[in-house]
Design a protein that fits this description.
The protein is of the alpha+beta class. The protein contains 4 helices and 4 strands, in the order ααααββββ. A hairpin with a 5-residue loop joins strand 1 and strand 2 (about 125-135). Helix 3 packs antiparallel against helix 4 (about 95-105). The longest helix is centred in the N-terminal third of the chain and has 28 residues, at about 1-30.
């Protein structure tokens, strides 16, 4: 009888202690109710901005100031998404063009009372910051992030052309070339796959 009583008492105390531990964990890890709406809205801004970068074409921002190299612009970038163009610029060390593209595309989508940053995950595991806007007050209460995996060309391949032409044959009408054909093809360089992260805070 006594053994059963003490066994029940021990189980009750153990259950009480377990509930206290779980309650403390929830208290320290959960978001306060007053912040939940703000956190949800912050996440939506980050997610929407990442979707714009992944879906919009560079051609829509081609004429925005600073978004492309004015000396040697590559027309093929017009059909690239903003995400791939930003990754290409980051890989080639042209962060200024990537920053201008981000500011043209997503800065108008995020209210000025929010801060944001766009970062590129480098091969060594460190983050390269492409663009950043600080909060007006400088104090950050909460932050949400959205990430996209991307990969593309840092240098486009050159398809080349046929080396055979009239001047390339020994005799008119002959099918024998004067020398071994040299292909004009040049392979491109690929960056990624890597992660581009959009963070928004308030």
């Amino acid at each position: 009888m006594n053994k059963g009583f003490f066994f029940t008492l021990d189980a009750f105390v153990a259950l009480l202690l377990a509930l206290i531990v779980v309650s403390l964990l929830l208290f320290f890890t959960s978001t306060p109710a007053s912040f939940s709406k703000s956190l949800e809205q912050t996440y939506f801004y980050a997610e929407d901005s990442a979707n714009v970068l992944a879906g919009a074409k560079m051609g829509e921002y081609w004429d925005e100031p600073g978004t492309r190299d004015p000396i040697s612009p590559d027309e093929r970038d017009k059909n690239s998404t903003l995400l791939l163009y930003i990754g290409k610029c980051a890989e080639r060390g042209q962060e200024g063009y990537a920053n201008a593209t981000v500011r043209s595309a997503i800065a108008p989508l995020i209210p000025v009372r929010y801060g944001y940053s766009v970062q590129y995950l480098k091969g060594d595991g460190s983050w390269l910051e492409i663009s950043r806007r600080e909060l007006p007050g400088g104090k950050e209460k909460l932050q949400a992030s959205a990430m996209r995996i991307a990969s593309g060309y840092s240098f486009y391949p050159v398809p080349g052309a046929s080396p055979f032409c009239y001047s390339g044959y020994c005799e008119a009408g002959s099918n024998t070339p004067c020398a071994s054909p040299i292909s004009g093809y040049r392979e491109g360089a690929i960056w990624g796959p890597t992660v581009i992260r959009v963070s928004v805070w308030i």
